[in-house]
Amino acid sequence: MKKTLKKIRAMVENDPNTSEQEVMEEQGNSMNEQSENNPENDKIRELQAQLDESRNKYLYLFSDFENFKRHAAKERMDLIQTAGRDILSSLLPVLDDFDRADKSDTLTEGTALIHQKLVNILKTKGLTAVKTSPGDEFNADFHEAVAEIPAASEELKGKIVDILEPGYSLGERTIRFAKVVVGK
After folding, report:
1. Domain region containing 63
2. In sequence order, what are the beta bridge partners of 128?
3. Last residue of a domain, one of 55, 79, 103
4. How many domains are there within the chain?
5. What is the CATH number of the domain that holds 99?
6. pTM score > 0.70 for this model?
């Protein structure tokens, strides 16, 4: 710095017509020369590069962790919604037996109450029957075609003729497809 001031003084003393702008440019040039040759500035640049790299790593890890938390929360919600899926699936044949007995009018009053209680419990656990009726269009997302029979009319082609077992869903997932007979 002292050398720079000496140069500027010498420049002004030798040429009194030197403008302030020339003096400032000379001062800036000499400072740039000093800063380029200064080992401290090299170290500062190196530390700045390390800091930028660390920031980028931190942002990447932060983003990755946020994605992990979101994914884990979604998995946890799916697990909670379908926690009893296996138990409910194993109770469906019992429910089917009750429905068949109810259709054949062999249920006594006591067993009809038990049937109703079982249906209510399954509903509270999130089990819902998939709405299917004869004449509906066959949909492979909700129905399982067990058999195909010749359609009585052109309108029944590709439509459900009979329902053998109802389908059930737990939350948004289908746990059993409705077993149906389709007209062809």
Report:
1. 2-79
2. 169
3. 79
4. 2
5. 2.30.22.10
6. no
Cβ atoms of residues 166 and 122 within 8 Å = no
Residue whose C-alpha is closest to residue 30's, from 44, 11, 46, 16: 11
**Model pLDDT for residues 51-81, shown as the tens digit of each residue:** 999 999 999 999 999 999 999 999 998 887 7
Token look-up 């400072």 returns 31
Burial string for 135-157 (b: 16+ CB within 10 Å, else e) reads eeebeeebbeeeeeeeeeeeebe
Q: What is the tens place of the pLDDT at every residue in 20-35?
A: 556 556 555 555 555 5
Q: Which residue has the tokens 């009194």?
A: 16
Task: For residues 74 and 114, state if they share a domain.
Answer: no
Report which of 119, 124, 44, 111 is spatially closest to residue 84, judged by C-alpha positions.
Answer: 124
Domain boundary among 79, 102, 136: 79
pLDDT of residue 31: 52
Q: Is 49 left (phi over 0), alpha (psi -120 to 50) or beta?
A: alpha
